[in-house]
Amino acid sequence: MQLAYPSGFAVANILRALTDKSLLKRSIAKLGGGMGIGYLGGLAALKITAVSAIDLSTSTFGAGMIVGARIAIPALVVGLIGKWQTPYLISIGWLKPDEPFRKIGFIIALGTFLGRPFLTLRSS
Predict the structure, then answer these.
(1) Which class for 88: exposed (0-12), middle (13-18), buried (19 or more C-beta within 10 A)?
(2) Cα–Cα separations (whole angstroms), residue 95 to 5, 24, 91
(3) pTM
(4) With 69 labelled, which of 4, 38, 77, 93 sits at a CA distance of 20 to 30 A?
């Protein structure tokens, strides 16, 4: 199934997973594992103060397990860059001292996502 667009690849992978029993089992296990880790981590953050003290979003971690490295690693990198750049963004007035990086990070990410087609057109 050689489809030309990313959405076509996704549909092809879903159809392949539905027809291949071992691939379907792995997909269900990955989905269940990610959901379970997110749920248990969130529950642990409510009950165990040491877990809540690290301020880790276990639901995001569980979602990262579901979507895999293609999305989870770039999200981690952007999160680390955000943590690193937050003081600078506060100093230039893009963020207020009590605002999280994700407020401006979403706008920056959206700009890079929407700007990519223009770069692709220009290089062709």
Answers:
(1) exposed
(2) 37, 44, 8
(3) 0.45
(4) 4
